[in-house]
Amino acid sequence: MPTHNESDPGHEPQKPEVDASAGYERSDVGVTGIVVFLTALVIFVAVIGLLCYGIGKVFNAHMNKVDGPNSKWTKTVDVRQLGNFPSSPELQNKMTEITQTFPTPRVQTDDGNQDIADLHAREDLLLNYYSWANQSQGKVRIPIERAMELIVERGLPVAPAVETAPPMTGDNVPTVTVPLTDGFAPTAFEQEEAQAQAVKVQRGEQR
């Protein structure tokens, strides 16, 4: 009889030797496990499909209840029947004309820097040149520089003094020593355009 103890840590049980001379597994594959897995997978896919179909039916019924049934205006149109848009110069010119004459406000095709520059240019025309304010009444806009000269010469109407209560203890009367701004600040895009224009003028003078 064998006298060895299996619980002896110094003793390792002998493993059966495997014949690897054939180069492949000699035992059969467990077909039952594969069949069970495939069956469970098919059932899972079928249940998920039925669940998605039911959820879609519920959503469609709710939308039909809220928005009403589909009509010719809400019917999905198969755009493939229309074919490709022909590349005709006449149609392209017509499309360009339509987009140019589309009523405002239009969707901007760039970041809007040019629109702001055009707005400031129109403002400069009103601020720096003479123009009619109301021709029938003979009212004329004058340049802002000329308006400031007239104010310096003639002065402004003096408003009657307003009685104010003396400041409380610890309060100071606010004073403005210099103007905070002249009311106009060109954008970075306009500054870059002005610098580029100055460079062009300088190169023209050097030539």
In short:
This protein is mainly alpha-helical.
Produce the secondary structure layout.
Layout: H1 31-67, H2 89-100, H3 113-128, E1 131-134, E2 139-141, H4 144-154, H5 188-206
Antiparallel strand pairs: 1-2
Protein architecture, described:
It is a single chain. The protein is mainly alpha-helical and 207 residues long. It is elongated and about 115 Å long. Helix content is 46%, strand content 3%. Among the domains are: 32-68; 113-156, no CATH class. The longest helix is centred in the first third of the chain and has 37 residues, at 31-67. A two-stranded antiparallel ribbon has the order 1-2.
Separation of the first and last Cα atoms: 117 Å
Residue share in β-strands:
under 5%
Shape call: elongated
Number-wise, the strands total 2
Counted by DSSP, the helix tally is 5
Radius of gyration: 44 Å
* Arrangement of strands in the largest sheet: 1-2
The structural class is: mainly alpha
Helix share bin: 40-55%
Uncertain residue ranges: none
**Mean pLDDT score, rounded?**
78
Query: SSE order in H/E notation?
Result: HHHEEHH
Largest sheet: 2 strands, antiparallel
